[in-house]
Structures are given as C-alpha cells and as structure tokens.
Amino acid sequence: MSTSSKPKSRAPAHPNTRAFKHNKNSRLTRRIALVGTDGLCKKCADKIEWRKKYRKYKPLSVPKKCNVCLEKRIKAAYRSLCAACAEAAGKCPGCAESAVEGDGEDEAGAKQRATSSGHDAGGSA
Ligand SMILES: [Zn+2]
Ligand SMILES: [Zn+2]
User: Fold this and answer.
1) How many domains does the chain have?
2) In a domain? residue 21
3) How do residues 53-91 score in pLDDT, each as one tens digit?
4) How confident is the model at residue 38 (pLDDT cuts 50, 70, 90)?
5) For residue 100, which ligand has an atom nearest its CA?
6) CA of 62 to the centre of ligand 2 (A)
7) Predicted pLDDT at 109
8) I need a surface site. Which of 39, 48, 85, 106 has the fewest CB within 10 A?
9) Which one of the ligands is nearest to 91 CA?
10) Residue 77 maps to a domain
11) Ligand nearest to the CA of 65
C-alpha cells in the first residue's frame, strides 16, 4: 500500500565529503604548527619558523638527549637542551647559547648588547 516515505532531509547529504583525507602532510603540519619557539633565541626561532613555513620541519620521532642533564627529555626538534636545563642555565634550548634577554653574563650577551646599542644613550649623567 502506502510506501514508507522517509523524509530525505535526515539522510547525510555528503557521506564521504570529509571522512578520511589521506593527507599525511596536513596532520603533520597541524602538529608542527603547534610547535612553539618559546625560550629560543631569535636565531633559532627564525630557523624553526623558516622550517615550518617551508615544510622543512622534521619533528623528532624519539626524544633527544639533553646536552646538560643527558636525559632524553627533548621532545621538540632542533634543540640541544631540554626546557628545564635551558631555563636553569638561561640559555637558548636550540643553540645552547645565552639567549635570555636582559642581563647577558656571557660573551654572547655582548653580542646581543651590540645589536641593541644605539638607543642606549641617556640616563643618569
Ligand atoms: Zn636537560
Ligand atoms: Zn638559539
């Protein structure tokens, strides 16, 4: 008799539109996009931003050994110090050079000072 007329509005319009996109890169890219450059010096931050931008960033598959504590704590690529050691030493986790802005105790600090010199004139005379 009367056929079951189901309203078609309930049916999925596009069942396969966005199910599985085998785009390996997009997932990786998203993961890479989350990689921050916190604590890194300008040089290292630039390097990583560049790699991210040009899809050259290669995430670590296994944790890397920290140069200071020798523990495999480094989870981000292109770093030689773990976050804790870098912070404790006030160094850039990337190149392990002094990168903390402000008081530069090492010679690397002088390098930074040279960069920011120019507006330094003035003050108590
Ligand atoms: Zn460490
Ligand atoms: Zn650095």
Assistant:
1) 1
2) no
3) 998 999 999 999 999 999 999 999 999 999 999 999 999
4) confident
5) 2
6) 21
7) 45
8) 106
9) 2
10) yes
11) 1
The per-residue pLDDT for 99 is 52
Q: What is the mean pLDDT of residues 26-53?
A: 89
Query: What is the average pLDDT score of the chain?
Result: 77
- C-alpha 120 – ligand 2 centre gap (Å): 24
Q: Measured in angstroms, how far is the CA atom of residue 104 from the centroid of ligand 1?
A: 21
Measured in Å, residue 64 CA sits from the centre of ligand 1 at: 10
* Residue 41 resides in a domain: yes
Asked if residue 67 is part of any domain, the answer here is: yes
Instruction: Using the mean position of ligand 1's atoms as its centre, give its distance from the Cα of residue 4 in Å.
Output: 68
- Domain containing 63 equals 27-116
